[in-house]
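Customer ticket, subject: "Can you confirm the structure for ATPase?"

Message body: Hello, I'm evaluating your service for our small team and ran a test protein. I'd like someone to confirm that this is what the system normally returns, since I don't have a reference to compare against.
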Amino acid sequence: MFLNRKVELSLLENLHAEGKPKLILLYGKRRVGKTELLNEFARRHRALYLVARQEAYEGQLKKMSSEIAEFFDDDVLRHSPFQNYDALFIYLAQKETPVLFDEFPYLVEANRDLPSILQEYWDRYFSKKKTFLVLCGSSIAMMESLLGYKSPLYGRRTEQILLEPLKFREACEFFPQLEQEDKVLAYAVLGGTPAYLLEFDYGKPLLENIRDRILQKNTFLYQDTMFVLQQELTEPRVYYSIINSIAKGNTRLGEIMNDTGLEKSKITKYLSVLKDLHIIERRVPVTEKSPESSKKGIYLLKDNYFKFWFRFVFENAEYIEQGRQEKLIGDKISPVLNNFAGFAYEEIVLEYLKSSPGFPDYIFGRWWDKEEEIDVVGLDSSQNRIIFGEVKWKALTEKEARQTLNQLVEKSVEVKWGENLKSGEIQEGPEKKYMLVGKKVGGKKRLLGDGYLVLELDDLVEN
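Agent reply: Thanks for trying us out. I re-ran your input and got the following:
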């Protein structure tokens, strides 16, 4: 099923329309929709789509020979398949057809010389024609190694596209029939991976889907998290401990060390690998001048489903082993699911603000210092403006809204920025605005009239 990916499909089509030689690396984690994107492009532009398997070099060449012969209706090739990549690339260099290699890392695993061979034929033939060649893969480590300066393809690739999970509003296309709150809950659990979003029956309650589609050992959603990680990691058990620790809320280096019992040098190495694989991300307060050297960095899981799986499934395997799915939901999941969704809602708000045409000049992020935290801070240094925002995953009365905003004003005084002074210490400070986001906000019109910025759930879904 091809849903969304309009931006990425449009990008591929625009690159193809340029009529220039293109060597494109398309990569992203498994299940994110790379194959569906390539298939849709191939359908629209009659492209040759070749998907590799984990098999010996000779078997791969035989399979591709058969598929290419079928595509071009070539009887000679049917009876005399390619014996090496030289023959394959010479053949393709004579065609004007776009060529899409899916699971390209499998081909490299079977023949480590392939990048060098492709480099030669790119330089000799493909770069001198209207070539449109896409190399696609799920092994992020290998695909990014092809971008490195030690790779034979370094300097040859014309574009690289990292296919990220869908954002909230894009994911909503998978469950348009749900109420707005239920859309947030579904996204909080499943995240933006298309293959995961297709697994739920959205005509059933969320907890029933969790019980039947996630908490059963034979299901795709139960098994896939481990499978994906095992494909990328050489010491998965250690990484599981670190990911699980972060999922439980240990986001600072010291907290992760204490929870896992691992030494700092080892933790740092493992965190770096997880970051390179786009499984975790390191964040700092948006006000930090030197993010890389900041001592306020925290580590967060990027994928909502990984957060859910490690928080509730990995931690509670004994319930599932004993067939106690209902008890697991009652004891561990249902009581905290609303709070879990609250964190996802904060991310949805940040995501919305970063792409909103209403705030084009602001850089948005979070702010924290010791025990204080502000959900949303937007900086516009060029025009000396700042926005402070609070996000609540609840419906607020006008009284609660004003109390929350008053507390936000008090907290905002502690924020250091500009010339490294607290915002309350700046004599002629910048323009400051205060934002409140809730499911519903009572007295919204009056709050807007008083100069506050107010957003509700409907604004995030519909606008």
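A couple of notes from the result: The chain is about 50% helix and 15% strand. The longest helix spans residues 337-355. Feel free to reply with more questions.
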